[in-house]
């Protein structure tokens, strides 16, 4: 066993219609002395939370949610069978596993799913080969993983969990886009909202994590409704979508953006409201975000805008910007 320290966009992982050029599989076993993961996974109210934490951990370890898929979860001895369809993602996974970053991410995401912190140990196998013994030779690990190509599709139980998550996201998206509904991370709304409410990484991480270097989850990714997305600079399409959907709350969004954007400090927002009053809400919202993007340049990122939209209870707008309904 390898001892761990501590601790899309959730893409909906599907079997590829065309066989990828690079395919391999590995078994990841997770053990905790503090709790019985196998027993917890059998509990219906915890199963989906555990699955979400595992998926987000794998996305962190591989660098993104694509290229790695959970084929099966074994209750006995609590293990996962993983399928890789990209060699680069498999290399990332091995690197982060070797440096205990995967273990750190496990604890982090379990905590965010309201599952208490725990120290864990992990074991990695490709067929009968224990990869923990040869982690110093990543090429050998890759060779064993590729030789262990999976010969079956995703397990029915895992497929059901994928569908459960998809259904909850779609239900939440639908409720947020309703003109009569305001969705907030603190609102006591549908089960979907509480299950998939966004959780941001803490600004101050536990010392036990910091002692081992920077955590795996980095500033170029952000979490929204329990789904990891790659951060990026806002585009002209984002600009259009925001202006079209934000409505009367554009000034409220602007007031929060101005806290970290000098170009929106008083009286900039009032000036926009006055100068473009005759053109209407669309143009006012358009000019607001235009000024933000011009002033902040490459710092005008999706994560900053989504954070403000969450704080102003405009989750539906954020979902349209991230296009979660078509994920």
TrEMBL record:
Residue ranges of every copy of the Death domain listed in the record: 246-325
GO biological process: extrinsic apoptotic signaling pathway; positive regulation of canonical NF-kappaB signal transduction
SMART domains: DEATH (SM00005)
Subcellular location: Cytoplasm, Cytoskeleton; Nucleus
Transmembrane region(s): none
Major location category of this protein: cytoplasm
Keyword set, alphabetical order: Apoptosis, Cytoplasm, Cytoskeleton, Nucleus
GO cellular component labels: cytoskeleton; nucleus; tumor necrosis factor receptor superfamily complex
Annotated GO MF terms: transmembrane receptor protein tyrosine kinase adaptor activity
Matches recorded under InterPro entries: DEATH-like_dom_sf, Death_dom, TRADD, TRADD_N, TRADD_N_sf
Protein name: Tumor necrosis factor receptor type 1-associated DEATH domain protein
